[in-house]
Design brief:
By secondary structure, the chain is of the alpha/beta class. The chain has two domains: 164 residues, 2-Layer Sandwich (VC0802-like); 210 residues, Rossmann fold (3-Layer(aba) Sandwich), CATH 3.40.50. The chain contains 13 helices and 15 strands. The strands form two sheets. Strands 1, 2, 3, 4, 5, 6, 7, 8 and 9 form a nine-stranded mixed sheet that branches. It has a six-stranded mixed sheet with strand order 14-13-10-11-12-15, sandwiched between helices. Helix 7 runs antiparallel to helix 8.
């Protein structure tokens, strides 16, 4: 059983004089997840964070630590390692014990961070590999595609051995880039858009527009679950649930049907901006991708965006549907998103929506509405769901639908190894 976690940062090591700002945030975010799991002593050097457990970690602690760190933005990858004396003979013996009873192919990757250690990285790898082979005839060396990689890291803090490594999402630490409002539907795209801006250090505040009671609560429950999956990456999220059916009914009754969807989205964006100003957010995120649906032509997106004074970000604007689906699967939102439901995006949709709308057309139709009254009423009825500020443990048998970690480059395991402000103008 491992007694140390070694986490390597991603982009943070490239930062200059403000690197400590990012490192301190990352350390805070990691401690927020590890403190409920076990007692860890933390230390850091450039690009590397070490967390020594108070003794060997029990299997359940290891499992929970792995799941927790796989959802921390700012970590590129990490190891569960055993600390050994900083002596090459002791390291070789510990490596042989670690590989005892294993079969298949392996490779040793040694790294000498402490230049006072007598063997350099290549010599250390060669000697450890040779010793392991002499002790275990069921193993063979494969330098290119081994079944497992034995990592040996000798640095100023000590000597550490690990078999296999775990990948994390990389990016920048949560809260390093400010707050942003995400318009979160129950579909595939918007959770992926949220995750992409979250990976750049933004804290996302989620806003969902629903048509209850004209449709069931399925979309609300779906979005609660989607927000819960995304919350594992930032902890302590908020979700605003905005009733939108009355606005849709007024637009349907009083305006040109072809412009209906564009008018819906302009009203949504006004409400999202009001909530963004209340939250102190610096922009609004949508899941739009050019040409995917009628409201996402360049002309319609321009007409919708015209009502906003805050920046509107579209992280998926040039992504294909296949690429969006692939990332949704990786981050754990896809299985929830594809569950059937009726929502405000499918209620009162015209048969032939306008594809090339203009701002002037939209404003002429909106003159038929008491828009401020409709927005004030929707904001007054908005409900807010707050997620706990500390992470809840994930059940051991949780399925893929609740799975937060990325698994792009998961290391293969060897046989025998355990697996209030003013509203915007309109």
């Amino acid at each position: 059983m491992a007694d140390t976690i070694i986490a390597h940062t991603d982009e943070i090591s490239l930062k200059g004089g403000n690197r400590s700002f990012f490192e301190n945030l990352l350390m805070r975010n990691i401690r927020q997840r590890l403190d409920p799991i076990g007692k860890f002593a933390a230390s850091a050097r450039k690009g590397v964070l070490l967390f020594r457990h108070d003794g060997a970690m029990p299997a359940e602690t290891e499992r929970r630590a792995v799941e927790a760190l796989k959802s921390v933005f700012g970590i590129a990858h990490f190891w569960l390692a055993d600390e050994t004396p900083k002596d090459l003979t002791e390291i070789k013996r510990a490596a042989a014990r670690m590989m005892a009873g294993k079969s298949g192919t392996f490779r040793v990757t040694g790294k000498r961070g402490d230049k006072k250690f007598p063997a350099d990285s290549m010599e250390m790898s060669r000697q450890i590999g040779g010793y392991v082979l002499a002790e275990n005839s069921a193993l063979t060396v494969d330098l290119h595609e081994p079944d497992a990689v034995l990592y040996a890291d000798v640095n100023q803090e000590g000597a550490f051995l690990s078999v296999g490594r775990e990948d994390a999402p990389g990016g920048l630490p949560t809260d390093s880039a400010g707050r942003i409002v995400v318009m979160l539907s129950g579909g595939i795209d918007s959770p992926v858009a949220a995750w992409k801006v979250m990976s750049r250090g933004c804290r996302a505040v989620f806003v969902h527009f629903h048509s209850y009671p004209h449709v069931g609560k399925e979309s609300i429950e779906k979005v609660r679950r989607l927000a819960g999956v995304l919350d594992r990456y930032q902890i302590g999220s908020r979700l605003h649930l905005v009733p939108f059916a009355d606005i849709q009914r007024e637009i349907t009754a009083r305006t040109d049907g072809a412009l209906r969807v564009v008018l819906y989205r302009r009203m949504m964006l006004r409400i999202a901006q009001a909530l963004a100003e209340k939250e102190g957010a610096l922009g609004i995120v949508t899941g739009d991708s050019i040409g995917q649906v009628a409201s996402q032509t360049l002309e319609n997106m321009a007409t919708v965006t015209a009502v906003a004074s805050l920046p509107v970000y579209r992280p998926l604007v040039g992504d294909s549907k296949n690429a969006i689906v692939a990332l949704a699967r990786e981050i754990g939102t896809y299985d929830i998103s594809i569950e059937p439901h009726d929502d405000c995006c499918t209620l009162f949709v015209p048969d032939h929506p306008e594809l090339r709308s203009t701002v002037a057309q939209a404003e002429n139709e909106e003159a038929k509405l008491d828009a401020r009254k409709l927005i004030d009423e929707a904001l007054a009825k908005t409900e807010t769901v707050s997620f706990p500020a500390s992470p809840a443990p994930r059940p051991a048998d949780a399925g893929d639908a609740g799975r937060p970690p990325l698994a792009r480059r998961r290391a293969r395991r060897m046989p025998g190894m355990p697996g209030g402000p003013a509203l915007p103008a309109f």
